[in-house]
Amino acid sequence: MSMRLLILGLLMEHERHPYEIRQTIKDRNWNECFKLRDGSLYYAVDQLREDGLIEAAEVVSVPGENRPDKTIYRITDAGRNAFQELLVAQFKQVSYPQHPMFLTMPFVRHGDPKTVENMILKQLGACEHRIERMHAVLELKGSFLPRGSALMIQGFILFSETEKEWLTTLLEEARSGKLFEGHKLTPAQLEAYLKYKQLPTDDV
Amino acid sequence: MSMRLLILGLLMEHERHPYEIRQTIKDRNWNECFKLRDGSLYYAVDQLREDGLIEAAEVVSVPGENRPDKTIYRITDAGRNAFQELLVAQFKQVSYPQHPMFLTMPFVRHGDPKTVENMILKQLGACEHRIERMHAVLELKGSFLPRGSALMIQGFILFSETEKEWLTTLLEEARSGKLFEGHKLTPAQLEAYLKYKQLPTDDV
DNA sequence: GAGCATATACTCAAATTTGAATACCACTCA
DNA sequence: TGAGTGGTATTCAAATTTGAGTATATGCTC
Fold first, then answer.
1. pTM for the full model?
2. Which segments of chain A does DSSP mark as H helices, in order?
3. In which domain of life is the source organism classified (chains A, B) (predicted)?
4. Residue with CA nearest C13 C1'?
5. B68 nearest nucleotide via C1' and CA
């Protein structure tokens, strides 16, 4: 998650202070598509400033005093160059779809079937809600959003629909008990396993 | 990425040394589905040992001397409990599909069209190869893999096929130039934008 | 048989992320 | 009137990941 690209990208539009960046990300519903923490936002901003890719445009003191002043940042020429590089770098990343639940799958068979079933059910519910929410966003914004942003959300919906399909299968298999199969290998399976070990693995 | 879950999960099967864990992950083609670095593997192993979740079962000196000895680890009772908790925690994660290219989308319009088009094309190629590779894995292993592992790979293929579809759209739009639209907002768009700002955002 | 890649088996500093905490203001609800 | 909730705006230590480096053995080619 290149926080730097995110920040520079937003500053390509116009100058902003960190909290405004955070808000913009929320307002645009991007936090549904990738996760962000305040901590790394402020950290990245500091780094960018140190590297001369952004600079303070203005420091605003909010009336009411004791609150920290906000610093408004602007992208520099070096920053605009860095943005182009980061954009390409992000494209170049070995990049494949990821889902936190992938990691649980190889191990569910060691878990408690009833608990697992419930967890899958919850994920499925969350997934369905997410699809609805994002459809609402697209309907309201789709036509006037920058095309790339609209396509991101559209992609996110597509992926979420695939997720729904996958979770539905998982749920069925959890209910039938099939999901928890595979504790032991029969000799035939073992032989197949040895064969499979020779499959080429593309380094990822 | 809970390295801990991954390690404990593998040690639920039988004892292993760190390098063997690394190998197993590769042999099972899991590195296609989630990314792992040696550094975090060894770090996590150390943590797990400190926490008493795993213990050294045996230290093996390899003939030929000067190589570091391998320590074979075994999961403890505390570790088995921790495994169950980590499994549930992983299920509970706010969990949605992610793709590194999502981050580029809102900003492609500031990038160089020709470069962007090429990058998308490359991703599409990589994606197609991945699908083929994973199909080969499933065909060879699908029947004898623990069901959960097979479903993970199946899910990964499903997601990759969705990715292919999405990338194809992106490519078309890059070629037609539509992808790069959205530099300025018309007054009507601005009004729509203000409306959209009021959309509820589920915190993620 | 010299050179070179590849596999084994890690180690470590530096970069980054996480998660929680801080502090202030404005609002409501009882 | 004061207690609690939510938004604004950030800081920071601790946890974790990254990326590069180390060192040896083994196999392969020219």
1. 0.85
2. 3-13, 18-27, 38-50, 77-92, 113-141, 147-176, 187-197
3. Bacteria
4. B39
5. C9
